[in-house]
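Closing statement on the BJW sub-project.
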Amino acid sequence: MAMPPPPAIANAVRDAISHDGRICVLTGAGMSAESGVPTFRGTQHDLWSRFDPMQLATAEAWRADAALVWAWYRWRMALVRDAQPHAGHRALAEPARRTSRVTLVTQNVDDLHERAGSVVDAHVHGSLFALRCFDCGSGHEGGLPPLDPAAQRIAPMACAYCGGGIRPGVVWFGEALPDDAWQVATDAARDCMLMLVVGTSGLVHPAAGLPALARRSGATVVEINPERTALSDDVDVSWRATAGDALPLLLGA
Ligand code: BJW
């Protein structure tokens, strides 16, 4: 069980709210860990443990073996569909319901924030479920065929327009982040009085640069993560707690 928020963090939240200051929340894979969704750099499910996500989440991997990459994503889509938002997701949705001065920026490709009642202002790494054609980029409107959860190779569906393979709508290494989402994220980082950085290792750029941008622009930056991260030295205060423990304690009152 987490201790109450460190006073510096409770005060920073109180200050931002009482001064009607903007709050930017930046979440990463650790936000969904307590819902049972593995983090990107954490332990993978047995079935996929011999594959490195860093190798699978690339256009090169898709070109080399689309059926392998698609099977991995189909497995992850099923896992996310079965997962439920936790108390931390719900606690984040609460202040956003009361004020429009909270901007939620997530690196996560799942939909757990939305299912907890939040509006996500920027999905900077896209979404698992926004399917599109790898070749022509057309959106895929149809559903998904039934999944064999043990399959390690599944041929991707064919695009209705050009016959290309249908891929997940996520941002792979080497791909540009969606312009609109990135604009929202950088504006929020520049304009906020407080940034809460929850459950990210801070290893993947350019998203990992958002806390530094916020701090340079005058914000107080608070990290919530059970482990030390690449960002820890450059935030104002770190709280070593999980998202599911910390956020209800911080935002619940
Ligand atoms: C808990 C917890 C609990 C556990 N509660 N916490 C500058 C420097 C160096 C490299 C680069 C640079 N700029 C760009 C690059 C290259 C590259 C990059 O960053 N590489 C690094 C690996 C070095 N970046 C890119 O390629 C990006 N694109 C780009 O820069 O394009 C340029 C361009 C411009 C114009 C035209 C063309 C190109 C794209 C990055 C895309 C990242 N995509 C992924 C995959 C998405 C799809 C998928 O999911 O399959 O996004 S990678 C993966 O990492 C995923 C995540 O969103 C992202 C971040 O990971 P995250 O969220 O931090 O998770 P973890 O697992 O790392 O950490 C979890 C944390 O949770 C840990 O700290 C735990 O302690 C904690 N935790 N339980 C709270 N209960």
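Residues 44 and 51 are 9 Å apart (CA to CA). With this model delivered, the sub-project is considered complete and its resources will be redirected to Aim 3.
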